[in-house]
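Thread title: Can someone regenerate the structure for this chain?

I was given the following input by a collaborator and told the matching structure tokens would be attached. They weren't. Posting the sequence so someone can regenerate them.
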Amino acid sequence: MITYQQEPNLSAQEFVDILNKSTLGERRPVNDLERITNMLKHGNLIITARDNGKLVGVSRSMTDFAFCTYLSDLAVDEVYQKKGIGRELIRQTKLASPLTKLILLAAPKAVNYYPRIGMKQFAHCYYIDDPNELI
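Best answer:
Regenerated them for you:
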């Protein structure tokens, strides 16, 4: 049975393990434990999915609980994918911050997943990696 709960004190090592067991490990700094620790420290809404205590999924978000929730990481162990765990992690994240609009940037391998579970696509998203890119 999968249980879901808020886990603000999730360990960096458990987080790295689930990132590596999902496809997110490819795009996260899993070899930089200090950076991972800061990601967890400043993500103020962390929801986990556990199967008899074993971490099988995590949703890590930043939210103001009033207007906006940015879901930065949604990771589900590949062995547990296609069982509704990702959808439930998103639902639990939204329930924890009901007044907000939940937004995310889809990982390339997940682009088709979000519309299938009922999320709407928004075309007007912009980003920069380096402040020197601004002209």
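The first strand starts at residue 2 and ends at 6.
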